[in-house]
Amino acid sequence: MKTIFRNGKIYTMKNQETVNNPLQAMVVKDDYILDLGTEQYIMGKYLNNKCRVVDLREKTVIPGFNDAHLHIYQYALSNSKIRLNAVTGIEDISRRIKNYIKDRNIVPGKWIEGSGWNDKDFTTPGLPEKEELDLIAPENPLILKRACYHVALVNTRALEICQIDKKTPDPAGGKIERDNQGSPTGVLYDDAIDLVENKIPQKNIKQTKELLQQGFEAAARTGLSSLQTDDFLNIKDPSIILQAYQELAEENKLPLRINLQLRVNQAEEIIKFSRQGIKTGRGNIFFKYGPIKIIADGSLGACTAALRQPYFNKSTKGDLLLSQTDLNRLVSTAYKEDCQVAVHAIGDAAVEMAANSFSRIKTINNPRPIIVHAQLGSPSIYQKMARNKVIAAVQPIFLATDWPIIEDRVGTDRSFHSYAWQSMQQSGIKICGSSDAPIEPFNPLYGIYAAVTRHDLAGNPQGGWHPAEQLSVYDAVKIFTVNPAYQSFEEGIKGTLEIGKLADFTVLSEDIFHLDREKIKDITILGTYVGGKAVYKAKT
Length: 540
Known about the structure:
The chain is an alpha/beta fold. The chain contains 17 helices and 23 strands. The chain has helices spanning 39-46, 72-78, 90-104, 130-134, 156-161, 194-197, 205-220, 238-250, 267-275, 324-336, 348-359, 379-387, 398-415, 421-427, 444-453, 473-478, 482-487, and strands at residues 2-6, 9-10, 25-29, 32-37, 51-55, 60-63, 65-70, 82-83, 112-117, 142-146, 151-154, 174-178, 184-190, 224-230, 257-263, 287-295, 341-345, 370-373, 391-394, 431-433, 505-508, 525-530, 533-537. The chain has an eight-stranded parallel beta sheet with strand order 7-14-15-16-17-18-19-20. It has a six-stranded mixed beta sheet with strand order 8-9-10-11-13-12. Strands 2-6-21-22-23 form a five-stranded mixed beta sheet, with no helix packed on it. β14 (224-230), α8 (238-250) and β15 form a beta-alpha-beta unit. α11 runs parallel beside α12 (379-387). The chain is globular and about 80 Å long. 51% of the residues are buried. The mean pLDDT is 96.
């Protein structure tokens, strides 16, 4: 049966001109767009007793939002953990954990997990150490992750269970903070967090599938129809994630379209995936394998992102988690196995290292390499990225949290090259929008708002932070629709609303292209459609 969607303001996003010429109606058949046009044309040609008709009530329709990089499984997991957002220090942390233990009747010995704290909110500088955490829950192993997930606080019980002591070496890609005697302080960085995570009981296949479905439902409520997700973060056994997705796909229980990014730290893992038939682009219209994901540095907030020059008023330059040689080997292996590559790189040293690796690719046709985050750069780095057609998967919503601390981290001069989306775009870099959820909310409207205003969600700073780097509303919508489809080699089937493409679209309460920019964050999602079928409809 055909479905006619009529009486709407349908923005196809095919080009800039479409913003001033919305269509009124669209016909969908078997998941795909059969036709689009004026109300008179569509109704006159297709209306009959075999058609279903949906009245869009003059609301705005755009292509379904596509998050180019997030962690949907970790988002779902985080909902069962202690929320530590906006805590002001150890007293606040203690109060929340004790309430959590009381409310949930947590027994001694059970792991307690939390996330979301940000030391910029602490009234007293410095990070709590294990002795302070021991006073909160001495009989329970405890792990509390910073908002960026690149730093974790653990107590003595957790260190004991995980056998982390003076003799434990720093793992590749991670660091165990130690006191003057060499004993762990309880602060872990990057891959050292896995020393603890790998000892926490993992979810089984059934539990994993249930959590993923919870994540999909939440994402659909924000207008997302496609997710490009790295769900191997702090996961001991990625095969559980793989099996969960494979089963959901086989059972037709994926409401959204998924590209699974494959996090690795060894070339042998890439080869193993390849031998199993796990390669970029393999799959169907609901589930495909995405790029190989490689981590090159930490985060700016934790001062572990790798910089070319030291952090402002500090001696450290952050941490490169692998050498140029090691990164080159991983990238080369991935391309030999016919896989796309995405490199997590936040600091300019890491971004440059990734760009250097990608510049060595000479024999691959259209590899579409990705740098995830690309938070701090420079004109020369952007030019190198553009020459090698490197995609930047950025997170505009990060600005809302980070703008007050960026100058404290890198100083005023370098801050002008942070979140420099307009500069990237003018250099010729294709930008894709994302959230990195659960690090930030995955609501694309928040990302679009931040991209066009350079404000946080409270409207600060006045005039926008480095407003020259603002994007137009059209370009901001494009980085959450058109460009992510290109990133996943799917521009032929989604990203715009055109005849023959998948009928994935989002219905908005307001006309995002002709609305005060400050009100974009307040737009309501009225419906999310995948293949012309509603996976979310707002209650009216």
